[in-house]
């Protein structure tokens, strides 16, 4: 098998910054199949949610783990050079996310974050995907208010309690 050439830094940046990235489209298609209708890149709300489901007043952000600093995630590595630059940049991203979340909360909009690594896993693992989508559905429709924000963390807790 031929190895794929690694992307250059600028290609990488372009991929990260562009709207309608592949993971986003993957999730949108799933949500559509589940019967949800939504707006994308909804700029009328703080933070321009990637997906907004009006019926349930739910905003969904599809976050890259590196840029949004997903906790305890393998993808959220810390670059070894220019540490100060990166730290500042990351802090700004995280602070922005927190502010957006607070604003949406005040508007009684529920916020769901779907992480890049979770989407990767869904694409590889059908069983994980099924369980994930079940919790996602509960979250969107506000059937349960789960304690853990991350859906995959919530899944782990549910599995532990069953053993
Ligand atoms: Zn992650």
From TrEMBL:
- Source organism, top-level taxon: Bacteria
The protein's GO terms of the molecular function aspect are:
endonuclease activity; hydrolase activity
Keywords recorded for this protein, A-Z: DNA damage, DNA repair, Endonuclease, Hydrolase, Nuclease
Write out the GO biological process terms: mismatch repair
Which InterPro entries does this chain map to? DNA_mismatch_endonuc_vsr, Restrct_endonuc-II-like
Answer yes or no on keyword Hydrolase.
yes
| Keyword field contains Cytoplasm | no
| Enzyme Commission identifier(s) | 3.1.-.-
Q: Which Pfam families match?
A: Vsr (PF03852)
Q: What does this protein do?
A: May nick specific sequences that contain T:G mispairs resulting from m5C-deamination.
Q: Family, per the entry?
A: Belongs to the vsr family.
**Which protein is depicted?**
Very short patch repair endonuclease
Protein's organism = Leptotrichia shahii
The record's gene field reads vsr
């Amino acid at each position: 098998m031929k190895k794929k050439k690694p992307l250059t830094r600028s290609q990488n940046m372009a991929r990260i910054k562009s709207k309608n990235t592949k993971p986003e489209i993957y999730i949108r298609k799933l949500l559509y199949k589940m019967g949800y209708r939504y707006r994308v890149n909804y700029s009328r709300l703080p933070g321009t949610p990637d997906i907004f489901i009006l019926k349930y007043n739910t905003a969904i952000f599809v976050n890259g783990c590196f840029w949004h600093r997903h906790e305890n995630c393998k993808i959220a590595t810390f670059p070894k050079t220019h540490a100060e630059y990166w730290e500042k940049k990351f802090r700004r991203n995280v602070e922005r996310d927190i502010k957006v979340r607070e604003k949406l909360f005040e508007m009684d909009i529920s916020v769901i974050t779907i992480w890049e690594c979770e989407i990767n896993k869904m694409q590889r693992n059908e069983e994980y995907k099924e369980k994930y989508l079940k919790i996602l559905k509960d979250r969107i429709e506000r059937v349960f208010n789960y304690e853990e924000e991350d859906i995959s963390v919530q899944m782990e807790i549910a599995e532990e309690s069953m053993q």
